[in-house]
Amino acid sequence: MFNEAQNLALVQTELDAVFYQVFDRLSAPGMATAETAEIFKPINVSHVNYIQEVFKGVGLWSAVGETQTVPTGTPHVANKQTTTILDFAEGVEISKNLFDDNMFGSYAKMVEDLAEMGRVTRDSNAFKIFRNAFTTTLTADGVSFINSAHPLIGGGTQSNLITGALTVNTFNNALVSLQTQKNQAGVVMGSVASILLVAPANFVNATQITQSALVSDTANNAINVFRSAYGVVVYQSPYMSSAVPGGSDTAWFVLSRTHSVMRYVRQGIQTGLRNWDISNNRTYFYQANFREEVGAVDYGGAVGSTGL
Predict the structure, then answer these.
(1) What is the CATH number of the domain that holds 88?
(2) CA distances from 25 to 35, 103, 112, 120 (A)
(3) How confident is the model at residue 2 (pLDDT cuts 50, 70, 90)?
(4) 83: which residues sit within 8 A by CB, 6+ positions away?
(5) At how many degrees (to 10) do helices 104-131 and 4-23 cross?
(6) CA distances from residue 144 to 40, 255, 283, 304, 305 in whole angstroms, order as listed
(7) Mean pLDDT value of segment 61-75
(8) For a Cys staple, 191 with which of 90, 148, 178, 285, CB 3.0–4.6 Å?
């Protein structure tokens, strides 16, 4: 005979089995989520506020004579940014009678929906950084993540904005822009494209541009160097599309491995269960929450276009 604590543990175990089956469900090929580490670099944080600064490097090395004193660079830190971690939570009440009468299909649907909405919430929140990349997603320099004039700590400005819809030519412009992009010290870093991120409406076009054996949309038989030389991976997300407020079907982004888009995780998904005997209506209360936020402290390693 199980006691009440053991019964509660068994109930939560059963509910968790349903919940995590949906929450951890794999996405379709090419579908990016908040857990796509190439796009959202994960950082485990220990406080509700995560503070970081932008580092200006020492600059290029100097040529020195055999016994000459080694020059000393002057690193500089500026542009402090504070990211506040958000707390997301939701729960459902499950009738004691429903559970006792083994109405598995009924309460399983409740838990499945809870898990599905949790996963959607997490991914939608993550991709707001790209939905708002040209407007309200700010880097530590105070301007939008994708902008034509990022002020450099070392002086001057740097653009990571590309003009035009995604085509062979504009994609090549993005690759060149990344390679010639300067860091905060004004040094060209030679960043190489790794990811092309688009809304679903642009996924076929993006895949043809990067993955076709020959150059797409032309009558010649030229080799597609984007495929043979770069190996760019195409990702898509419905949470970038025009179906989501602030989204766009035409915007596209190219990221290198050195980009600064981060996912700050204070707490991964957790579930909990309140027993029916401490409720006033004989219901179990099954709940889940996670704590995280996304941000980009710097423009480096990323270029983007509104597609217009």
Answers:
(1) 3.90.1690
(2) 12, 24, 11, 12
(3) very low
(4) 49, 50, 51, 52, 264, 293, 295
(5) 50
(6) 18, 16, 47, 11, 13
(7) 83
(8) 178
* More confident: 99 or 248: 248
Confirm whether 300 is domain-assigned: yes
User: Token pair for residue 91?
Assistant: 């729960």
Q: Report helix, strand or coil for 264.
A: strand
Q: How far apart are CA 54 and CA 50, in angstroms?
A: 13
What tokens appear for 13 in the block?
């175990």
Q: Is residue 12 part of a domain?
A: yes
Q: What is the pLDDT of residues 252-264, one digit of tens each?
A: 999 999 999 999 9
This prediction has a pTM of: 0.90
Tell me whether residue 71 is in a domain: no
Distance, CA of 49 to CA of 92 (rounded, Å): 29
What is the residue whose two structure tokens read 């419905």? 238
3-state secondary structure of 247: coil
Residue type at 175 in one-letter notation = L
Count Cα neighbours of 114 within 13 Å in the Cβ-side half-sphere.
28
Strand order in the sheet with 261-274: 41-44, 261-274, 283-296, 86-95
Taking only the tens place, the pLDDT of each residue in 139-172 is 999 999 999 999 999 899 999 999 999 999 999 9
Specify the pairing of strand 41-44 against strand 261-274.
parallel
Give the gyration radius of the chain's Cα atoms.
24
For 138-161, give the DSSP string. B-TTSSBSS-S-EEPTTSSEE--B
- Report the 10 Å Cβ neighbour count for 245: 8
**DSSP element (H, E) containing 252:** strand 252-256
Q: Has residue 74 been placed in a domain?
A: no
Distance CA 186, CA 193 (A): 20
CA dist 156 and 159 (Å) reads: 10
Give the whole-angstrom CA distance, residue 113 versus residue 92: 10
Q: How many domains does the chain have?
A: 1
